[in-house]
Amino acid sequence: MAAPSPGNQPSSATIATIAGEVGVSVTTVSKVLNGRSDVAPGTRARVEASLERHRYRRRGRRAAPGGEQLDLVFHQFNSAWTMEIIRGVENVAAPAKIGVLLSQLGGAHRPQREWFDAVLTRRPLGVLLVLANLTQTQRLRLQRQRIPVVVIDTDSATAASVPTVGSNNWNGGLLAARHLLDLGHRRIAIISGPEDVLCSRARVAGFRFAHDEAAVPVDPDLVRYGNFYVNAGYEHGLRLLSRPDRPTAIFAGSDMQALGVLQAARRLGIEIPRDLSVVGYDNIPVSAWTGPALTTVNQPLEDMASTATRMLLDLARGVDPPTSRIDLVTELVVRESTGPPPAS
Question: pTM for this one?
Answer without folding.
Answer: 0.78
